[in-house]
Design brief:
InterPro entries: DUF485 (IPR007436), Inner_membrane_assoc (IPR052959). It is a single chain. By secondary structure, the chain is an all-alpha fold. The protein has one domain (3-110). Helices cover 86% and strands 0% of the residues. It contains 4 helices and no strands. The protein has helices at 3-16, 18-51, 53-57, 68-110. Helix 1 (3-16) packs across helix 4 and helix 2 runs antiparallel to helix 4. The longest helix has 43 residues, at 68-110. The mean pLDDT is 90.
Length: 111
């Protein structure tokens, strides 16, 4: 069996593996949920800027130099960073483990 046909056989086994379908569905669902969260917060902030700019410029307290807009942006920065860390942790843990198992199973069948 040539190298190319061997690779095709491995790829076909991977695509036909029900665990691969499960992996794709889990990853896609997780990415979709995170994308919806990020886009809602991000565009929600800009909608507030567009339709209620006075709120963004309002100070948090009388003696504060920090405005609602600055606090919101700091929250978004930290929140998006945490979401990224959460995604990386899950991707490097659960998703990579599933991928390794799927590839190992497909490679065993070829030999």
């Amino acid at each position: 069996m040539s190298s190319t046909s061997s690779q095709r056989a491995v790829y076909a086994r991977i695509r036909n593996n029900p665990r691969f379908t499960e992996l794709v569905a889990k990853r896609q669902g997780f990415a979709t949920v995170l994308s919806i969260i990020v886009l809602t917060i991000f565009y929600g902030f800009f909608m507030v800027v567009a339709f209620n700019p006075k709120l963004i410029g309002q100070r948090l307290s009388e003696s504060s130099y920090v405005t609602v807009g600055i606090a919101a942006e700091l929250f978004m920065f930290v929140f998006f960073w945490l979401l990224t860390a959460f995604y990386v942790k899950r991707a490097n843990g659960e998703f990579d483990a599933m991928t390794t198992d799927i590839i190992r199973d497909a490679a065993k069948e070829v030999k």
